[in-house]
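Quick one, tokens below. Sequence please?
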């Protein structure tokens, strides 16, 4: 079963006799996008594991949440459906909409790098029928790309990352009444972020990071995961790939030099990791932006 097929929001719409999946794509690194049409339906979402961003493309003027029948959708209206939320929808008339799905790990990395916050401090605010012209424009750009063409799928993946960042910058807030236990001290977390950023090109071991933090490897790994929302090796790989994407877009450096600058053992190791995360090779990614 593909990651999209395991997504609860995707599953709910797929099981509807009235909803039609026009197109969908895995965009690499756990990202997914789908284009739907639906009519005269009722759908429930109950505690999905992934976050969903939704944009109404056409219709939707008869769509509402069951507990808010007086508030209805319209083209270019957006909904933010965080992981773990519950919602019940009634669709009167016809609607065409696009979804972007992303994981808790995407949220965690953006929380740390964009907002300098621990992911567990923050929550994505649930929003219904939001006006956000920039994000609506991003969605229309996203569906205008050919997700079946490798180069354009890579462009879609890059745009999806920008859309996630936009959502966190505009729709994330501190959790109410939160009392954090465990994890790394905020000052140490910030020093670790800087330490890793400055040494992305170097081989960094768990032992090196735990020594820097003055903790045993066992306690460091456990506390790192509490504060970063992912294990150290996953965060390090994500930062290496982010650096690689920027170098591929902004420079003409040979792929071998980019591999070394981002801490990969070889160009082939870099290519394999990049393809697994992004759904295409570094060369194809660079070509797509040119």
């Amino acid at each position: 079963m593909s990651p999209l097929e395991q997504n609860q929001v995707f599953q709910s719409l797929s099981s509807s006799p009235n909803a039609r999946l026009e197109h969908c794509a895995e965009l690499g690194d756990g990202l997914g996008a789908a284009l739907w049409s639906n009519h005269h339906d009722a759908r429930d979402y109950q505690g999905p594991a992934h976050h969903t961003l939704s944009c109404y493309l056409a219709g939707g003027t008869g769509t509402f949440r069951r507990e808010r029948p007086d508030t209805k959708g319209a083209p270019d209206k957006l909904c933010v459906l965080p992981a773990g939320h519950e919602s019940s929808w009634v669709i009167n008339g016809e609607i065409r909409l696009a979804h972007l799905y992303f994981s808790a790990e995407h949220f965690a990395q953006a929380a740390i790098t964009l907002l300098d916050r621990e992911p567990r401090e923050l929550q994505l605010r649930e929003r219904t029928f939001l006006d956000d012209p920039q994000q609506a424009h991003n969605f229309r750009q996203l569906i205008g790309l050919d997700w079946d063409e490798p180069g354009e799928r890579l462009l879609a993946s890059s745009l999806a990352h920008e859309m996630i960042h936009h959502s966190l910058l505009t729709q994330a807030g501190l959790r109410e009444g939160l009392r954090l236990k465990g994890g790394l001290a905020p000052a140490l977390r910030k020093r670790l972020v800087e330490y890793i950023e400055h040494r992305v090109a170097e081989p960094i071991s768990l032992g090196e990071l735990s020594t820097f933090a003055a903790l045993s490897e066992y306690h460091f790994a456990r506390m790192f995961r509490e504060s970063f929302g992912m294990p150290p090796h996953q965060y390090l790989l994500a930062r290496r790939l982010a650096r690689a994407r920027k170098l591929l877009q902004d420079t003409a450096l040979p792929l071998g030099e980019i591999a070394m600058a981002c801490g990969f053992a070889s160009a082939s190791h870099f290519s394999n990791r990049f393809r697994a995360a992004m759904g295409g090779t570094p060369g194809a990614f660079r070509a797509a932006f040119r």
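The CA atoms of residues 85 and 111 lie 19 Å apart. The radius of gyration is 20 Å.
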